[in-house]
Amino acid sequence: MEKFEHVLSEMKNTLCEELKSFLERFENYEDERFQENLFVSFPFIELFYILDGNGIQIIDNVINPLYIKKVSRFGKGADRSSRPYYLEVVKEKKCIVTKPYKSVSSSEISATVAIPIIDENGSIKKILCFDIDLIALLQSDKHFYTKDKFEKITKIFYTVFSIFLGLISVKLVLWGSLNLFIIDPNPEHIFKSVILVTLAIAIFDLSKTIFEEEVLLYKDPRRHSEIRKTLTRFLASIIIAISIEALMLVFKFTISDPSKLIYSMGIIASVGFVLISLGIYVFLGTKSEISVKKFEREFK
């Protein structure tokens, strides 16, 4: 137990800060989306439950699928007011981490993290409780320590990269707008303007997607649904841009050199192939995710 006490004493503040930061991203802690993200982000958490201000459990245990066979799903209505973590959190009114103990439910060496929800009057409204498997925590502590720092560096990089792409799109629009003042019966300069502006729109949409997905929104790369949404948005922007480019080439070659129309048709065919491939990918990814959720429900 001394080894676990030493680890907890070092990681107590980090655990509390990580969990509080995670909780800020959600409003409803009983929502299925919150619960799924909780166990993906913190796989060492065995179960989660909520107490009211009097220490009465108000929901059944929400169990990590990895511990589904070890821990009881029930618990709603249980009186936890005599538990050390409840007494301590009521006294401190801040996040607390208990000393290591052997869990009765899972038989693992565990600890409980309790985070109070304080109302505007300074009273405890709810207490969020997380039972942690300390052996699993020890196995992931290196990742756990470095994750927050790495995420900040990554967000800074993506912010700079998004701004750079945005500036490129602005420059392309300015180049394209210069042709507006050219008076020439040859429509080629119009096609150049349309191509430049279309490319600018595609690049701007890409920069916006990167900034939203990687900086503003919480996204766990281990979840396939998150990756699928990002990839779909990115490829949709590319498909639209290339389709417009192909259309412009059709007009251009129709006027200037009809013998080259075969090249524009090749681009259109490529767009069709990418679109069909994307449709298959989205269909299979969605089907796979539905199967996984169905499998998880059958074990609950």
UniProtKB/TrEMBL annotation:
Metal-binding as UniProt keyword: no
Membrane-crossing residue ranges in chain numbering: 156-178, 190-211, 231-255, 261-284
UniProt keywords, alphabetically: Membrane, Transmembrane, Transmembrane helix
Keyword Thylakoid found: no
InterPro entries in the cross-refs: Sensor-like_sf
Domain of life: Bacteria
Protein name as annotated: General glycosylation pathway protein
Source organism of this protein record: Sulfurihydrogenibium azorense (strain DSM 15241 / OCM 825 / Az-Fu1)
Lineage: Bacteria, Pseudomonadati, Aquificota, Aquificia, Aquificales
